[in-house]
Write a structure and sequence with these properties.
With about 325 residues, this protein is mainly alpha-helical. The chain has eleven helices and four strands.
Length: about 325
């Protein structure tokens, strides 16, 4: 039996569960401004009551664990580089692996608030060892963890050698706090740009298609990418070359990129505690992208897809509009040929 959110379209939709439709963007880029809605968003699931606050805690803990002193990063030494790699792998196993264990091995939540209840892909030659989960773990822990660590270590070295504009919490406390949610906005911009690039014909065929093997997703799907895509994905932290920041901000940024990939691909909208949604996880916006491919290239933080005509709001009517757009593009390509 389908479990659906309130206020949905009456047309048949191919989901086991979905939130209220149509979905919309964060109240950030709207006119006229809605300051109270924006404040409510950031104090709730937009930031403060979300996994983002967990990533802030992880970033601060990592700063303490790794010594809290940038001077020790001025030289590439095996000791601290290995520390970073071990920490990153541990976070992957604990958070991404833990989410998979909770939802898919233990099945602690059953199918409640799961978008798509069809089984994970097994027996298909497109997956490594013909298993979707093993394929995802292979790409995530192989290429993903190594390239994530390389980006992080490179920027730590740059902080250690005073090559990056730095920020002191004591001198700029308000900006230091505001930078955390602003990093998420930058991530939304960067993600849209590089994601559209990955959907060009050649890059999709040879690179991005690995990620899109996952039509139905699970936590390990988030970082299941080709190494070239990992390089592009984690390049989101280049903003710290230009904007003054503290290493904790860079840590938050890289952990957000690496670990939120797992939470947004959970396949479940929320962690339920006594049937009450207690922590937002899966991103239906991106789940639509995995189902239909040519829509929702960005995130709900910034309305790039709405501005460029690729927004799918989850309704059957939006699916019809999307099919018409794709048919028009195909006719145009045939005409050009």
């Amino acid at each position: 039996m389908n479990q659906r959110g309130p206020g949905v379209s009456t047309a048949k939709l191919p989901w086991s569960w979905h939130p209220s439709l149509p979905i919309d963007y964060a109240p950030l880029f709207v006119w006229p401004p809605r300051p109270f809605d924006l404040l409510k968003f950031y104090l709730g699931r937009g930031f403060l009551w979300s996994v983002n606050l967990i990533f802030v805690g992880i970033a601060i803990s990592a700063w303490v664990y790794l010594g809290g002193d940038v001077a020790q990063w001025s030289d590439f030494k095996a000791g601290w580089v290995a520390q970073v790699y071990i920490l990153n792998m541990s976070l992957l196993v604990l958070l991404t692996g833990g989410s998979h264990w909770y939802f898919y091995t233990l099945r602690a939540q059953g199918e409640k608030n799961r978008f798509d209840c069809t089984p994970m892909g097994n027996g298909s030659p497109k997956f490594f060892t013909e298993s979707q989960i093993r394929d995802n773990v292979f790409w995530t822990c192989g290429s993903g963890a190594a390239i994530w660590t390389a980006w992080q270590v490179g920027f730590m070295w740059a902080y250690g050698n005073n090559l990056l504009p730095s920020l002191d919490y004591g001198d700029h406390p308000v900006w230091a706090v505001m930078l955390f949610p602003l990093i998420v906005v930058w991530f939304a911009f960067h993600f849209y740009v590089f994601h559209r690039l990955l959907h060009t014909q050649s890059l999709y065929k040879y690179v991005h298609s690995i990620h899109h093997r996952n039509v139905n997703v699970s936590p390990w799907s988030g970082l299941a990418m080709h190494p070239v895509e990992h390089l592009l994905y984690f390049s989101t932290i280049i903003i710290h070359l230009f904007i003054p920041s503290h290493p904790v901000h860079m840590f938050f940024h890289i952990y957000f990129a690496a670990l939120a990939a797992g939470t947004t691909h959970t396949g479940y909208s929320d962690l339920l505690v006594k049937r009450i949604p207690s922590l937002g996880l899966g991103d239906f916006y991106h789940q639509l992208h995995h189902r239909y491919f040519e829509c929702n290239y960005g995130t709900p933080t910034m309305p790039w897809d709405k501005w460029f005509g690729t927004f799918h709001d989850g309704t059957a009517e939006s699916a019809v509009r999307m099919r018409r757009r794709k048919a028009k593009l195909r006719r145009s390509e045939i005409g050009d040929g």
